Amino acid sequence: DVVMTQTPLSSPVILGQPASISCRSSQSLVHSDGDTYLSWLHQRPGQPPRVLIYKVSNRFSGVPDRFSGSGAGTDFTLKISRVDAEDVGIYYCMQATHFPRTFGQGTKVEIK
Amino acid sequence: QVQLVQSGAEVKKTGASVKVSCKVSGYTLTELTIYWVRQAPGKGLEWVGGFDGEHGQMVYAQVVQGRLTMTEDTSTGTAYMELRSLRSEDTAVYFCATDFISEFDLWGRGTLVTVSS
User: Fold this and answer.
1) Could you write out the DSSP letters of every residue in A19-66?
2) Which residue of A has its CA nearest to B96?
């Protein structure tokens, strides 16, 4: 199975300041079709996760442009340019290139 | 509006079975691949099972292999997940999810399954 490793696991941030989360996979996430199926999801307590970024850098519909994704191969990053109060919660990277699908451990973002 | 509507919470004894449903509303089940993901209390997301269209086979996580069956009733547009020989460590919220526009972009609200002795 592909192991997804996120850092940091906890990120206290100041409102209005940037934040960054890294995700590393144990093997390449480049699919045989040429795409890289790495997504970032955000989960608030008591709610299902929702997609922010898909295929490394594509922002999902309705997601604020302060969120951006980058990376290639096995190393990926989610950046929040200016953290807003509604951004608190847990962020997961997820790979959908290989079966079984696997998630990172989650990064808890909270306001300092 | 496309939605995945899940069945209600369940409480089961150790060794029993549970069947959770996920009804597709506003779209056709046959056009979707339904995956199941679980989340133990206070823990992260764990993929449980789903159909690998590339190889034409159902794939299950090792931890539920042999105990999990995923089925679909296309007449009602409902997907099911049945987990047998329940253990305390199976206590979790079980989500159904699908790749609608992008990977795992559509989720059900989750079904809490509590396993106790």
Assistant:
1) EEEEEEESS--B-TTS-B-EEEEEE-TTS--EEEEETTTEEPTT--TT
2) A48
